């Protein structure tokens, strides 16, 4: 199934080359590059959040290697919507070249600009709307409204002489969205009539049967829970989910409660959303949380971040009584959010902490307080039937999602060989209505850690995992440069190994003996002597403690 | 809600003291001690599996501290069933005193004995059956059949002059179990008539509404999937789930396939289950997996371990092509198991790997191939109504489960003050039909790591987490004992920090300067000089790399 590494041939005239750099075989860091006539267009530039086997990593970026030597050929980066997995890596891209034009809808660009401001980057932007057409280098772009869990999301149709490509970005097909802005199936139909040569389509929910329920269905549940709540209400959700927050505001308003926004990103994003008219705030509804504490308990709703159990976010801090708002008996906490795989332990720890404090915790598992932002299988089939694309490239998903999506396409009559299961770095050439795999680039993970980008390697992460599971033992011996005689040590120190250092008293004489033997055999260089130390203590720790810590031996000449 | 630490008063005559040592506020390491008239009975003695914030830990034991000085008073340990979270810590208990009698059903004791054999312990055992009554010290024990996801599970009624206690162990109320052995509600009714003074009840599924479906409902699904499978079938499940394996064997047999068992624990447990008559194996059905490879692909079912994505188990190794059986296109893999919270990433990684190899992966999310082993809310309410216990102690669960269970009890009319939300170490005294909290012991986590038990502390785990997230920097300086002059160093080495060590070239002169300054101020002892080194490099790394690694400074005199 996997495509062997192969540099693609040089690009023929009149051919469009499509290369996903991220988002295939993973949920996150979505990024695809399109090359035609020597020019490059980028669609999306997101981050991936690390898993537990990537300790200490802050963010993971797409591997920019294929475009690093081509920066002057980039004509623009189109952002389909304002989620981190589609915009989070833009600052790192603009660090390479700050004047790459950034193209997206009003809300998307406002969110990107807030992010760029933190990185002290001022970008060149072009705001676009659904229905708009823009020529960017050799790429004729048309933007199409799509519905998602953030307002103002766009699909993009890319026309070149090689054919017509449609990239959905993330989307679903809520037919009664709060803002009335549905995924524009009339435009999809028109593009289908014209002939879609390649369809890049969101796969996140391709293995979920049926249809994603409407966002509107959550409103009555929030209304009922908030209406019945005897004391304070705390709602946690994603800080960019404008329509979810809107429904919380509406329910609070209906029950005579005021709302305090909590969490830096919640405040920032909702201020942007209100300024741009995406969030409708009844006058006098919002209140600063410090003032909110003076209100009676049944007159307030706190709208906060932390629905994924992030340790530094508001909700986790509340659960740990490490926040000014301390939940207690009679309070109601609503997690109006999904539970992203991998976050279960953290989220359940927060739910448990809040329950222990006496709060009534309402979440996805016991009430209908969340719907997904992605099209399920039933919706995707509608798209395939309306578009009838010549070639399909499922994107945005783990392999099982990509494969499930390809099967849906095949169910609607698209030939299996026209549905391409690719991975990051797969090079796909489109010409004359035919898409074919032209090569496979070897791309890696680029880790952001503290102020470093790409400095941490997979080898470092392996070291970290060993340190985490086994700890380390350092052994320092100072020897006389001339005679090789031990002047000081061995000093043995361990961390994360359970025993106090006296457990190593037994092995010190063995190290001395091993060094003397080596020295007697004429070994004198400190590197070789260090290896003698490593072997001696490594074997001893393994036998005596049944452990394999990292051994850090150091023989110093003085 | 939490009970302040308080040593309980000495135990009055005629009072039964109940102290859970594990299993409250967590899923695992279930263990409760009962004390009467100077004698101690233990019910269950299980392990807890570590989470990602406990790296390198193999197992977590209950804290045996409260019984360590009372070993001669222990009259026996009753094991309700053979799951690891109820029996896994028995070897560590018997290491303290090897002749504590171990009491349980036939299958339970066979599984414990297999485990004890690996620890080279031979135990004193007493095999009991449902309906049996045994006097153990001052405790009059009666065993009651309960249904669970392993055969031969028992609840235990404990009679003392202080009253009648019923402990369910883990259970559900499948009314049509494969082996016909239902939870004995007639016995529950009889005990209820007699008067249950304290009811210790499984809370695992107390927050799940309704009723757990019957195990039998999985059979037709397995039959259909295996019947339609074009090539090989691989089923993964828990290695002690005899009835699940039975249904796989039956489905394989019905479709003319033979079955090869894979994985050490699967082979061991199923051999025990077959020997004792719990697993019925059609003659000639089983085949060694090495011979199975000679069969046509549509004539074999592999029954394996690894349904939780455990990296060393068979299924993960298959997904990584690190096993003799290599899944491929046309093969069907069934994960007939739950997805234990915390394992999602690992399990989805395996599902993805198998999908990428071309296998069709059937799991809980896309087919009814698993039912829970625990009573849901509807079943628990039946129990409360039949038993009408005077006092209720929800056990086996996170806090949210314990609280949900207490609410169910209250729904049936039991007063809130008679439902006790306790934590590990809560001391509960029962006398004259009244249960009251008498104190709270301070218990910890006992970590098994390699050959050590209890040697790893929470401080070590904190060190490991820092090492995992940030790595470490060691700095060694050799100074002249007499003059304080630097003879060698600073040698700076880092691991897990991304940069090659040359990044530290800048800070070496700063360290030298700081040491000279300290020396000039008369600082001479190596510990204080080490602190100077720590501060200097720590501040530098924090500012320059925006990181907070573990700093290991060492100033040595030579």
TrEMBL record, chains A, B:
The main place the protein resides is cytoplasm
Q: Residue span of the signal peptide, if any?
A: none
- Where is it localised? Cytoplasm
Give GO terms: molecular function aspect only: 5'-3' RNA exonuclease activity; RNA binding; RNA endonuclease activity; zinc ion binding
**Residues annotated as domain Metallo-beta-lactamase:** 28-222
User: Residues that bind Ca(2+), according to the entry?
Assistant: 56, 58, 449
> What's the domain of life for this entry?
Bacteria
Q: Which CDD domains match?
A: RNaseJ_MBL-fold
Gene Ontology annotations of biological process type: rRNA processing
**Hey, which family's this protein in?**
Belongs to the metallo-beta-lactamase superfamily. RNA-metabolizing metallo-beta-lactamase-like family. Bacterial RNase J subfamily.
Function, as annotated, reads:
An RNase that has 5'-3' exonuclease and possibly endonuclease activity. Involved in maturation of rRNA and in some organisms also mRNA maturation and/or decay.
Its recorded name reads: Ribonuclease J
Q: Which organism is it from?
A: Microbacterium hydrocarbonoxydans
- Supply the source organism's classification: Bacteria, Bacillati, Actinomycetota, Actinomycetes, Micrococcales
Gene that encodes it: rnj
